[in-house]
Design a protein that fits this description.
The protein is an alpha+beta fold. It has four helices and 14 strands. The protein is globular, with a radius of gyration of 17 Å. The two termini are 13 Å apart.
Length: 218
């Protein structure tokens, strides 16, 4: 069993109000494509920048079939499409930092500024994995008073995908943090709209592997 703190587990559909909290682990939702030429230029630079701030930022990568074929998009199109349409994105590459900031020029100052905003929740995620599935348990604790239209999403990722030859037309063979499944679905789980300090909720779910390239990377 593994335990980790994950911001990707909780996404606020609308802004939430909080008074006190703990250090934020920011979420970057990256939209890319294996046949997107600019992606092959900009995404590796972004990943290199983020690698220096792994204690402050996590990536959830959505592969799109833009402008052409991408096998990872075909593996789970409903997940990537849902997030792409939610943000009203018009093409790739693109990204969202904590659901709002859009800029490929992610800098230290931007990351530090986001990290300085206290997080209203502590999220403990534990999971068990077999050869065929993953089971997840997420415990959410409010560390400040919060109100808002809140949903929880558990994202299963394949940490690293390596192809022997480029799967698309832009030459990329290595892909990181690729979305494989939302548990229970891209719609997420609706949470209470009002939380006091100490309030908690638990969400559990599982997923049977499908279209996984290497189960050890799940």
């Amino acid at each position: 069993m593994k335990k980790t703190k994950v911001m990707i587990a909780l996404i606020a559909a609308l802004s939430a109000f909080s008074v006190h909290g703990q250090q934020r682990l920011s979420l970057i939702e990256l939209f890319s494509g294996a046949s997107c030429s600019p992606c092959a230029i900009h995404v590796p630079v972004l990943e290199d920048t983020i690698s220096h701030y792994q204690d402050k930022v996590v990536i959830l990568r959505h592969q799109m079939n833009i402008p052409a074929f991408d096998p990872m998009y075909n593996d789970y199109p409903v997940g990537s499409n849902t997030r792409y349409n939610y943000y009203g994105i018009q093409g790739v590459p693109d990204l969202k930092l904590d659901g709002a900031v859009t800029s490929f020029d992610i800098t230290r100052s931007i990351i530090e500024a986001r990290a300085s905003i206290p997080a209203p929740f502590n999220i403990d995620l534990s999971y068990t994995k077999t050869d065929t599935n993953i089971s997840v348990n997420m415990i959410i604790n409010a560390v400040s008073g919060v109100t808002g239209n809140l949903k929880a999403r558990i994202a299963v990722i394949e940490n690293e995908i390596e192809f022997s030859t480029p799967p698309g037309s832009n030459g990329e063979r290595f892909f990181f943090k690729v979305l494989k499944q939302f548990i229970p679905s891209p719609a997420g789980t609706t949470l209470a709209s009002t939380w006091a300090i100490g309030d908690a909720d638990t969400i559990s779910g599982s997923w049977t592997f499908a279209n996984v390239y290497n189960k050890d990377e799940i």
